[in-house]
Amino acid sequence: MPDERTLEVKVWRGGESGRFQAFAVPRRASQTVLDVVTWIQRHLDATLSYRYACRVGMCGSCAMTVNGKPRWTCRTHVDKVADGDTLTVAPLANLPVVKDLATDMAPFFDKWAKAEGRFVPADERPADFHTVPPGTRASRAANAGIECIGCGICYAACDIVRWNRDYLGPAALNRAWTLVNDVRDAGNDVRLAAVAGDAGCHACHSQEGCRTHCPKQINPTASIAGLKRATMVAAFKGRL
Amino acid sequence: MTGRTETRLWIAQRASAAVLALCVIVHLATLIYAVHGGLSAAEILERTRGSAAWLGFYLLFVVAAAIHAPIGVRTVLREMTSWRGRSLDLAAVLFGLLLAMLGARAALAVFGWGAVFA
User: Fold this and answer.
1) Residues A200, A194: contact at Cβ < 8 Å?
2) A198: chain B residues, CB-CB within 8 Å
3) How many CB atoms lie under 10 A from the CB of residue A80?
4) pLDDT in tens for each of the 118 residues of chain B?
């Protein structure tokens, strides 16, 4: 049976400058924030721009700012986040706004490249499958960060990104840390040099905004602390 | 500045922080203990004069502070203002030297060589 209540939804319209536009959306049971945005686009204003793909929390494309906090909207229930009967939906912070709720993710992923976040095979043509011994310190560290879906929520939640536009950010550094712990990878000298310094891991203040908001319960702060240790060891060994 | 230099600065700041943590505890504990005992500043100085141990301790304290503080202040300034580059690095070095000089002056006074710098 449909809920009789109505949700008042304020949605960001425009680009970097713009305004919030109010919509009235019928409240439903188990309604997600993405359901609300989609309902507005299908029934009230077809020009509303936003981004989503999988709707099940795998692709990382639907992140938005919901009542001031970055969230994955497809897995965020309205009941959990609505302030009474009101909801404010804005694009992710710390990224350029393309239009309405869609941000330009290019700066975010460019930083993955800057952090040398690509796999560098140690052996181009291995004769057999590599063995990754389970339960080792390295494999546990890589496992802890590997489920990142690249949604950009940690990047939007990070105060250091806000202060320092060059800062690589939690997701890119977390990616670098998973590769540092990948026994098949041979790119660590270049990678550690790329992530050291005031635009890299040493800028992190361990405020854990990333960890607080990560929908996958990853702890990028711990990954960044790992990079600090790894760069320190590399510096002592003269490899940085 | 290169990642290598930034990493070294980070290591220097962490290491000096560890020294400072110890020094501050010893300093405050001694201070509270001495004051509770009813000693005046003059009486405390009377006891520290000629003590190489206290001189060594406070010089270590000063060196740690002179390393730790400028690195932190430089980081804070870079985050909170648009000041960057060589001028900021130089200012941080000068700030460190100033701390070292003032601190050494105080440490030597505790030892009893204050008149040299007075």
Assistant:
1) yes
2) 1, 6, 75, 78
3) 10
4) 688 899 999 999 999 999 999 999 999 999 899 888 888 888 888 888 889 999 999 999 999 999 999 999 999 999 889 998 999 999 999 999 999 999 999 999 989 886 544 4
Q: Output the CA angle B46-B51-B53, nearest 5 degrees.
A: 140
Cα atoms in the 13 Å half-sphere on the side-chain side of B62: 19
Going by DSSP bridges, is the β-strand pair A86-90/A6-14 parallel, antiparallel, or unpaired? parallel
CB A232 to CB B11 under 8 A? yes
Domain-embedded: residue A222: yes
Q: Distance between CA A157 and CA A94 in Å, rounded?
A: 8
CA nearest neighbour of A146 among A119, A178, A173, A120: A178
Instruction: Indicate if ipTM > 0.90.
Output: no
User: Based on the domain organization, do A192 and A125 belong to the same domain?
Assistant: yes
Distance of CA A173 to the CA centre of its chain: 11
* CATH number of the CATH domain containing A222: 1.10.1060.10
Q: CB distance B11–A235 less than 8 Å?
A: yes
Please give the tally of structural domains in chain B.
Answer: 1
pLDDT in tens, A193-236: 999 988 999 999 999 999 999 999 999 999 999 999 999 999 99
Structural domain range at position A110:
106-236
Q: Which residues of B touch A202 (CB under 8 A)?
A: 6-7, 10
How far is Cα of residue A135 from the mean position of the Cα atoms in its chain?
27
B6, A228: Cβ pair inside 8 Å? Answer: no
Q: The domain spanning residue A22 has which CATH number?
A: 3.10.20.30
Low-confidence spans in chain A with pLDDT less than 70? 1-3
Q: Which residues of A touch B8 (CB under 8 A)?
A: 235
Chain B residues 23-82 with a CB less than 8 Å from chain A: 75, 78-80
Given an 8 Å threshold on Cβ–Cβ distance, is A228 in contact with B3?
A: no
List the domain range (segments joined by +) for residue B66: 3-117
